[in-house]
Amino acid sequence: MNKRILIVDDEPNIVISLEFLMMREGHEVRVARDGEAGLAAVRTHRPDLVVLDVMMPKLDGFAVLEAVRSDPDLAGTRILMLTAKGREAEQNKGLALGADAYMSKPFSTRDLVEKVKELLDRT
Amino acid sequence: MINGPLIIGISFAYLGLLFAVAYWADRRAEQGRSVIAHPTIYALSLAVYCTAWTFYGSVGRATENGLGFLPIYLGPTLMVLLWGSLLLKMVRVSKAERITSIADFIASRYGKSQVLGGLVTVIAVIGVVPYIALQLKAIAWSFTILSHYPEVRMPVHGDGPFWADTAFVVALLLAAFTILFGTRHLDASERHEGLVAAIAFESIVKLVAFLAMGLFITFGLLGLGGPALPPIEGSAQLKPLLEPSISPFADWFAISLLAGLAVMLLPRQFQVAVVENSDERHLRRAIWLFPLYLLLINLFVVPIAIAGLLTFPDGTVNADTFMLTLPIAFEQPWLALLVYIGGLSAATGMVIVETIALSTMVSNDLVLPALLRRWRRRPPAADLGRLLLTIRRGAIIVILLLGFLYYWLAGEAYALVGIGLISFVAVAQFAPAVIGGLYWRGGTREGALAGVSAGFLVWIYTLLLPSFAKSGWLPRAFMETGLGGLDILAPMALFGLSGWNEITHGLFWSLTANIGAFLFVSSLRAPNAAEASQAGIFVDASRRTALASAPLWRGSAEIAELMRLAERFLGSVRTRTAFVQYARSRGVDSPEALPADAETVYFAETLLSGAIGGASARVMVASVTDEEPLGLDEVLNILDEASQIRAYSRQLEQKSQALEAATEELRAANIRLQDLDRMKDDFISSVTHELRTPLSSIRAFSEILFDDPDIDVEQRRRFLGILVSETERLSRLVNQVLDLAKIESGHADWRTEVVQLQNVIHQAVSATEQYVEERGCRVHLELPGESAMVWGDRDRIVQVLVNLLSNAAKFAPTGSGKVWIGLSRADAAWRVCVEDNGHGIPESDLELVFEKFHQTARGGAKPGGTGLGLPISRRIIDNLGGRIWAESTPGKGATLCFELPAHPSHPTD
């Protein structure tokens, strides 16, 4: 089951770990290092799932989420929010804006892989 | 054209006008729109001081001894300077104690003594009745002289029966007017609004008349030639005027002092200045307006005197009548009539106010105490208010008739003509008791009695009896030899004191005896309870504000009894109203609920004082209450307590002010704390976020390595490398957070030493050598030859430089990075700049980079630092007294600079 995954995060080492995990699962992985680049990549590459960090330069994760959700062409894009801010208010905001799942850093790699699988299986 | 009926008609019309003014003012007062509650009206009413004696007599005095008339007005002008304290105190005390007269004032001060009040009243009546007679004479004479118009003829005294004498009619008329406006209310401490308005009006009329006359003489006769006057030079008549015989120093001083005292102590002056005062702030205007009035009314005295002496050189015309005879001689009927009205104003104003004041004193301080003694045996009828009014009205008639009688008997005698100043000396006897009582707590009732009596007796001996002798009523030998033929007791040269005029002489001896006796007798014993209590009220008058005096009273009383007592004098309606108001002020619903304590008894006594005077009020209240006498020790204790309470309340006030300030500070501190709290929350939230990031990597790679043993060696090495560097980042972060907290809390240890910046830079460069090399970066140094010395903590400066260097290396492009370190002199400081060739910092972020956890992803790459390096650096440099800032040309790199003050002992040039 080969899916397209987009990782949007400004923290290089986290990107490396996520890239490794997704590729190990056999997915096709692309990386963006800030919100703007991330949104552009969503539009051009139409990933099945986006792993989206919240705190990023230029455009934060919530803004990217909103833009994706308000674009009918991009319907069906799964979004997994990943944030270092573990507060509930943040989670709720993300879910209210239409994120499919929400995980806080530091995350368990196994849980993350499971969650990604689950989201991709939904279709 | 001017004849008797016309003058009578005009006189009546004028009195009618006065009546109308008074009536109108009373009406307005009832409607609550008082006309006399105005400082100018107050100042004008004080001018009741200027009587017919001023109006006609000043010219007469000027013909005898030139400017000798002036001290009578100079004295009050100087005395006015003391009013800010003296009169203000008198007004305050009188309002608080509802004092009704000068006698009441003195009696109240010395423990509400009936005897003292009576004595003062007797002296006032004896001293002032002849003065009233003088006014009656002035009115009668001016009427007679004017009725002979156009003939100048001096009136002849006493031809015909007394009831046909003009003065008799005048006395009766004035009695009627006085009764109408002076005794409408029982409460003598209540103001007589109508009366004061009429007096102020009269003051204007007499001033206008005098000025009109003065202008006519000065410009009409003397100035512009006018009808032929003999030349002034060499005229024998003018000799006494131009070469005054009055001895300059002693007499001027004495008469000024005398007049200055009289202007406050004459019963009528006390009435208008103190009792009728509606607002103590009015004193401020009176202080300059009253002296101005005196100046104006004296402006033309000398010209009129000169004109009179030149016009009537043969001495057949009495100089006291020049004011009236001059316009008649020059055939100015209307001016003569105006002067007549002016004189009438001066005389009636004085008579009316003086009579009211005296009648209050007679009824409250003479008649009532006698009645009280009788009532002790046989209780009186219920309504005493009406009786009191009748007494007061009777007193008015009696006083005016006494005045007429004196006039009738004395006639042209010296005893009447010279009475003005003699009268003044009599009332000056009140001065030691009044002024001493306002500033000295030690005066006692006996002291005041002794002083006033001694002064009065000396007055009789040195002034009154000689004036009788001069009038031929006593053998003239009396004046020369004195009592029992002893020269040393000669009334006009007592103890051999001669050379002064009789007034100065009499004033000197009477006041000497008075003050001496007052001080000596007062010193014989300490003040008792009643005296000490009143002394406190009087002496502290200017300090006492809303705080009611703490009355020194202990005993038992019943409210119903007190009210019944007040009702008998004031009527039930007024009593009820006053008690209800008082009850409300003490916070209880009805008078019946009032506590029967010292304060309530004091209130009832004060209320009654307004009607019957302080001394009688005390006796009446004592008759319905059970007072326990207080010993001196207790009095002193209470006074002590009162002053302690005052001190406490002052302290409390200060404390409460301090508390208020402290509250304000606390509020500000609280706001600051809340801000700090919010900043701390933000900081903790940021720190957590920064901790989570490296932790995420560490956890992720640990799990990957754990779960996946088959990862190839190369990748494993790389992942382990990440683990190491993220762990380092984590511990660096923890260290820096702790470091920052230490600096911010002020607990950091700072060494102060002389640091050479070249050394520090070399040290920092070698500390970062490895990292810089890893980044493929090259470092260029630009250091001056001379050594750059600053004060500071060497390790901290190294810390800052390492920070800046690693930042620069981090943001410089990998491989081709270049970092320049420059050291240069900037005025009194050394400046270090670290420059890189990276992407630079946007203009808007130049300040933000120094904020905690603000990390700029310069050139899109995550810097990977802690976000605390620059904030810490800024705090270090601030602490060392320098400054740090960032400059940048975006795209071409960033420059971070700091300056530290150059060490003064190492000048660089």
What do these coordinates show?
The complex is a heterodimer of chains A (123) and B (909). Helices cover 45% and strands 20% of the residues of chain A. Chain A has 123 residues and is α/β, with parallel strands linked by helices. Chain A has a five-stranded parallel sheet with strand order 2-1-3-4-5, with helices on both faces. In chain A, helix 3 (61-69) links the parallel strand 3 (49-53) and strand 4. In chain A, helix 2 runs parallel beside helix 3 (61-69). Chain B folds into four domains: 4-24 and 38-413, Sodium/glucose cotransporter (Up-down Bundle); 545-623, no CATH class; 634-740, Helix Hairpins; 749-901, Heat Shock Protein 90, CATH 3.30.565. Helix content of chain B is 65%, strand content 6%. Chain B contains 34 helices and nine strands. In chain B, strand 8 and strand 9 (893-901) form a beta hairpin. Residues 857-862 of chain B have low confidence and may be disordered. The A-B interface holds A 10-14, 16-18, 20-21, 24, 33-34, 55, 57, 84-86, 104-110 and B 685, 688-690, 692-693, 695-701, 703-704, 707-708, 715, 722, 725-726, 856-857, 860-862, 864.
Structural class determined from secondary elements of chain A = alpha/beta
The biggest beta sheet of chain B is recorded as: 5 strands, mixed
Query: Counting H and I runs of at least 4 residues, what is the number of helices of chain B?
Result: 34
Give the low-pLDDT segments of chain A.
none
Summarize the structure in short.
With 123 residues, chain A is an alpha/beta fold.
Provide keyphrases for this structure.
heterodimer, A: 123 residues, alpha/beta, Rossmann fold, five-stranded parallel beta sheet, 5 helices, B: 909 residues, mainly alpha, Sodium/glucose cotransporter, Helix Hairpins, 4 domains, five-stranded mixed beta sheet, two-stranded antiparallel sheet
Layout of helices and strands, plus pairs?
The complex is a heterodimer of chains A (123) and B (909).
Chain A: E1 4-8, H1 12-24, E2 28-32, H2 35-45, E3 49-53, H3 61-69, E4 78-83, H4 88-96, E5 101-104, H5 109-121
Parallel strand pairs in A: 1-2, 1-3, 3-4, 4-5
Helix pairs in contact in A: 2-3
Chain B: H1 4-30, H2 39-46, H3 52-55, H4 57-65, H5 71-79, H6 86-97, H7 102-109, H8 114-147, H9 166-182, H10 193-223, H11 239-242, H12 248-265, H13 267-275, H14 282-298, H15 301-311, H16 322-329, H17 333-377, H18 384-410, H19 414-417, H20 419-428, H21 431-439, H22 445-470, H23 477-481, H24 502-522, H25 529-539, E1 555-556, H26 559-570, H27 572-585, H28 598-612, H29 614-624, E2 626-627, H30 632-707, H31 713-745, E3 753-756, H32 757-774, E4 777-782, E5 789-792, H33 794-811, E6 817-826, E7 829-836, H34 869-879, E8 883-889, E9 893-901
Parallel strand pairs in B: 4-6
Antiparallel strand pairs in B: 1-2, 3-5, 6-7, 7-9, 8-9
Helix pairs in contact in B: 1-10, 2-10, 2-14, 4-15, 5-12, 5-14, 7-8, 8-9, 8-17, 8-18, 8-20, 8-22, 9-17, 9-18, 10-15, 10-17, 12-13, 12-20, 12-24, 13-17, 15-16, 16-17, 17-18, 17-29, 20-22, 20-24, 22-24, 25-30, 26-27, 26-28, 28-29, 30-31, 31-34, 32-33, 33-34
